Amino acid sequence: MMRLPKMDYAAPPTLSEVCVLMSEQQEKAELLAGGTDLLPACKLRNKQPTLLVSLGKIPSLKDIRFDESEGLRIGAMTSLNALRYDPLAIAHYPALIEAAAAVGTTQLQHMGTLGGNICLDTRCTYYNQSESWRQTRAVCLKMGGEVCHVVPKGNKCYAVFSGDMAPVLLALDARLKLASSAGERSLRLSEFYSGDGRKPLLIRPGEILEAVIVPPPAGKESSAYLKYRVRGAIDFPLAGVAVRLAATADGLCRDCSVAITAVSSAPVQVPEAADLLKGKSVTAELINKAAQETSRAAHPVANAFGATPSYRRKMIGILTRRTLTSLAQNLGMAVR
Ligand SMILES: Cc1cc2nc3c(=O)[nH]c(=O)nc-3n(C[C@H](O)[C@H](O)[C@H](O)COP(=O)(O)OP(=O)(O)OC[C@H]3O[C@@H](n4cnc5c(N)ncnc54)[C@H](O)[C@@H]3O)c2cc1C
Ligand code: SF4
User: Fold this and answer.
1) Between the N and C ends of the chain, which has fewer C-beta atoms within 10 Å?
2) Helix 309-330 and helix 284-296: axis angle, to 10°?
3) Is the entire prediction scored with pTM above 0.90?
């Protein structure tokens, strides 16, 4: 059995106290939300903080509220289970519910939070291993070494971002509210990921994700998320596609947004696919073209168990076709 190393623990009752502590401790401390990703990483010695700073004592971080002009504001410590059954989210953002319900298992959804899911570390078969396993080969780039075992001639880390919530929030054009001892800032989720497997988040040292804000739906629109994984009951995605589709009164595509996950070091939007549909009548031919574009935007490499990169890429196209077709039908758009 792998044990946690000895670490100090703090659970300040206010966000400002967390900010002060994080700015004092910098890299020595890690924020603890549900711990479902961080604690296994500490057991594997992928991460070795000396202090865990829990966000669990700050009730305001669990708030969910909806406002006609701002949209849905979700506190970062909202559990995925709470989000999954939230009536406001169910009423306005079906893809959020589908993604929350697709994360790991029920137990993980109870413990895991939205903030932790957005701030998930990237994964790789050569990284998510015990220290003794990793010691059998050269230290790779993500652990501070100079080689990559997946792309030996490359000079970057290709560890994969495997979160289910981020693609949906990208398709919904969500914004993040971040807090630190230097003040608050807000940025679009699309500006939050670096694309570098080594350090996947563009979060500043000492910063805390406070809330996620999803714009209100405009008119007749809907969203959907589909994921491919090996075991439906537990696994991380090997490919995931989120789509938001909006219709005009006469059944044309008014707006569209497509985002994918688990096929590169960041979740990414695919405007090339979405733009094909905007202002048009959604035909099967256009959906197929959008699926091809989405598949082209996926760049999986051989660092996840369960499927080859080419199969994952193919699945991105298939999932895009399925999400677009069902959304168009649900919105009453004739797909010919
Ligand atoms: C067996 C298994 C299966 C899983 N399957 C899936 C899956 O299918 N899909 C999926 O998306 N995930 C999956 N996960 C990963 C994880 O359970 C979820 O992503 C979960 O939502 C993470 O949230 P958490 O609150 O537990 O995060 P934590 O583990 O507490 O934190 C994760 C990271 O985020 C940082 N962090 C947390 N909150 C904040 C904040 N507010 N501000 C700044 N940084 C923060 C932490 O410091 C840490 O680095 C799985 C995990 C396991 C063990
Ligand atoms: S992709 Fe390469 S550098 Fe990154 S974790 Fe895997 S082996 Fe290490």
Assistant:
1) N
2) 150
3) yes
Range of the domain at 175: 59-119+160-214
Nearest Cα neighbor of 72 from 59, 97, 89, 87 is 89
Which of these three, 214, 241, 260, is where a domain ends? 214
Angle at 40 between CA 34 and CA 41, to 5 degrees: 105
Pocket residues: Cβ below 6 A from ligand 2: 124, 126-127, 140-142, 148-150, 157-159, 197, 303
11-63: pLDDT as tens digits: 999 999 999 999 999 889 999 999 999 999 999 999 999 999 999 999 999 99
Q: Cβ-count burial of 260 within 10 angstroms (0-12 exposed, 13-18 middle, 19+ buried)?
A: buried
Amino acid identity for residue 51 in this structure: L
Ligand lying nearest the CA atom of residue 176: 1
Check which CATH number belongs to the domain holding 205 and give it: 3.30.465.10
β-bridge partners, 140: 147
How many structural domains are present in the chain? 2
Separation of alpha carbons 125 and 145, rounded Å: 16
Counting from 1 in the atom list of ligand 2, the atom nearest the Cα of 149 is 7
End-to-end Cα distance, the chain: 56
Residues 249, 288 share a domain:
yes
The SS3 of residue 182 is coil
